Amino acid sequence: MLNEADYLLKQGISQYQTSQFEAALQSWQQALSLYQASQDLRREGAALGNLGAAYQALGNLPRAIECHQQHLSVAKAIQDRLGEGNALGNLGNVYQALGDVTRAIDYQQQRLAIVQAIQDRLGEGQTLGNLGSAYYSLGNYTSAIACFKQYLAITRELQDHRGEGQVLRSLRLAYAALGDLTHAIEYQQQQLTMARQLLLAASSDDFTKVAKMVGLNPAEDFAGADLSGVNLRGAVLSGTNLSGTNLSLANLSRANLSGANLANASLNNANLRDADLRGANLSHADLRTLLPRANLSGANLSSANLCSAYLPSANLSGADLSSAGLCDADLSGVNLSGANLKDADLSRADLNNAKVENAQFSRALGLSESMKRDLEQCGAIFEDG
Fold first, then answer.
1. Which of 42, 254, 314, 366 is 20 to 30 A off residue 214, Cα-Cα?
2. pLDDT digits over 299-317, tens only?
3. Cβ pair 347, 328 in contact under 8 A
4. What is the largest CA-CA distance in the chain?
5. Distance of CA 233 to CAs 106, 157, 253, Å?
6. What residues does each domain of the chain span?
7. What is the architecture, at CATH level 2, of domain 2-119?
8. Are 111 and 127 in contact (CB under 8 A)?
């Protein structure tokens, strides 16, 4: 009987972890009945706690509270301090979800006393994190920060990288809410540094995945950051704010950066082979790098530095290259149809086999008269306008 109950308990956990909450509920209900028939109170309590989690996931918070209260009663009856602490923490989480923050804090403080008494450092950290979140929701940012800092110390002691990243983000948000942007930026930089260290120490080369693991939001947290040398190959960063970001020596091959804001970004010696930069803002960016077959159609490259850039067969149709530096750039086979190259510096640029239909070259620098004639014959426009 117990073997079957244990199997059902584990089955419910697998189902819960894959968001099959109804199925998990049924598995745990069956396991609970078997544990009760066997009078195994410790495992009965575990099943009740799991049922509470399932009910909460399904939005049935009153039933979740009933299960956690029953778990608490069982844990107290058998003097299961760890189970008692877990039940109290779960009750606090449910009341937090109900918006009863005062009661949530009370339960979390009760749990904190227990986990500290039994020296459960992981449980202590989780409880401090929950308390910090509760205080934050009340606007008590000072108390939230105090809890988060204690939690941070525990995550580092336990080498819990995911927890450390999440609490660094919580500290950043709390300080930002206080208007202390200096500390907020400091904690953001710690997140970025941590992500880089994990990439260097681990086998993973997916910076975006690691960044999310440590609580960074790629859509908004990379702006102005030092991401030099990181591997973003194939990353989906469309619409991302990367303005002012240092991406020199980064691998962005096949990355999706369509619509991204890369204004003033440094991409010197980055690998942008086959990258998708359609409609991206690259104004004043340093693009002295490899961009073969990159798609830059409709991109804003005004005043960008593309001197000596390698762009064979890239798509720059409809791009704004006004005042861009293109001296010594390899533009062989590039699609420049409809592009704006007014006031661009094309000194010594290789335009062999470039498509220039309706491309604007007014006041472009570095073109000989014979080159201008050849380009005009291919559809380029040189009139001022």
1. 254
2. 999 999 999 999 999 999 9
3. yes
4. 96
5. 47, 33, 5
6. 2-119
7. Alpha Horseshoe (1.25)
8. yes
